Amino acid sequence: MKRIISILIIVGLLAIVIIQLAQNKKEAENRVYKYDKEAPVKVFGEVVKDISEIQNKTFSGLFESMNEVKVSADIQGKITQIFVNEGQKVSKGQALLKMDDQMLQLQLNVLETKLGGLKKDEARYQTLSNEDAVPAITLEKTQNAIATIEAEKKTILEQINKSTVRSPFNGVVSMKFCEVGGFASPAVPLFELINQSELKFVINVPEEDLYLFTENQHYSVTTGISPKSISASLNQVSSKGGMGNSFKVEFALDNSNGIKPKMNGELKFVTNQSSNDALTISSKAIIGSESNPEIYVVSNGKAVRTPISILSRNGDYLSVNGEIKKGDTIVTGGFINLFDNANVIVNQ
């Protein structure tokens, strides 16, 4: 009897151990990651655009003067005359205002009187020195005094010249900040001058559209005052973004249409692309090499590996054609777990 009980206890313990091992195995299997090919992969995507959408893209902006400066005096003084008014055209070097130079003129007269006397002394000492009637040092001191007076005279003449404020370039007086009887100094602006013959057109471009603007492209600007388009050349693209992560882009143009600064205008992008079948995609969508490029096209919730042909590159964007069409969604990010015909969830 005792033997039977012992056997039953052993069998029971074995059963408990086997059951526990089975449970442990099940838990371990549940913890092991099992790759599910049917699980959707989260990816980033974009919609394929027709090249004509780029051709019709326009940007609004403002015309600004290429040369726009606030003119100040180089010396300080009381304003005695103003020769120009707001809106008046001026030429380079033309006098804008005159400051009181009476004291400078008096100083100049004193120096000229001294200089005249010293030059007479120099002539007399030169004759006497040749006859050894006076020491040579006397002639030398007189000549040094003449050089000093001439340097002082040159300084006074320069100050007298600077008492007249002149235009630095051909332009228009857009603003006047001074009046007769006022005080001018180097820190105080007197006039604002603009050059209307050379303008720049300034637009703010979103980050995603910067690729449109390169030196090899052509641009046309239109205004509300003339139906004719104006040819514009790229001047510079800001290296730092501003509000809303937009970038300032400037274009240089000749003003032969009577455009004034701060007028509104529109710039239309014109591409050199000649293919009517060309589509535009981001270069981030390319997988493989550019000699045999492929992309993932999302169709019915699946990423389908699709071959394409690259026609041209423009910055971070490519002009392509192939087995894709306008409006298709393509994958541009999240390639790590992606494979052909994988189920995908697209974040655009």
TrEMBL record:
<dbReference type="GO" id="GO:0015562">
    <property type="term" value="F:efflux transmembrane transporter activity"/>
</dbReference>
<dbReference type="GO" id="GO:1990281">
    <property type="term" value="C:efflux pump complex"/>
</dbReference>
<protein>
    <submittedName>
        <fullName>Efflux RND transporter periplasmic adaptor subunit</fullName>
    </submittedName>
</protein>
<dbReference type="InterPro" id="IPR006143">
    <property type="entry name" value="RND_pump_MFP"/>
</dbReference>
<feature type="domain" description="CzcB-like barrel-sandwich hybrid">
    <location>
        <begin position="69"/>
        <end position="187"/>
    </location>
</feature>
<comment type="similarity">
    <text>Belongs to the membrane fusion protein (MFP) (TC 8.A.1) family.</text>
</comment>
<dbReference type="Pfam" id="PF25973">
    <property type="entry name" value="BSH_CzcB"/>
</dbReference>
<dbReference type="InterPro" id="IPR058647">
    <property type="entry name" value="BSH_CzcB-like"/>
</dbReference>
